[in-house]
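Report of the visiting student (M.T.), summer placement. My assignment was to run the structure pipeline on a short list of targets and document each run. The first record concerns Helix-turn-helix transcriptional regulator.
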Amino acid sequence: MTLNRKFFLGFIRIHILYHASKEEIYGVQMIQELKNHGYDVSPGTMYPILHSLEGEGFLKCRKVNVQGKIRKYYKITSKGQKILKESRQKTVELINEVMK
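After the run finished, the structure tokens were exported:
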């Protein structure tokens, strides 16, 4: 993992939680979404993040057979909603401080 990716990992996790709070998400979709925001996230980075967020109880997973392949759809949990709310507050504080 490059230095930039390590540095922005928290932003990526917040971004994933945000989108999972709006609708079900899946890995390839989030890779593209993050690419639209200037992040270059590989599947080798994305899927461990999704599994980690699920393991920590922030996301829940639903498996669907899509053209013979199992696709995992993720949705935010109540625990994920709570950490997303806290992250939003911390983000506002950070932006207010660093943009002075």
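Strands lie at 59-66, 69-76. The longest strand covers residues 59-66. I thank the supervising group for their guidance throughout the placement.
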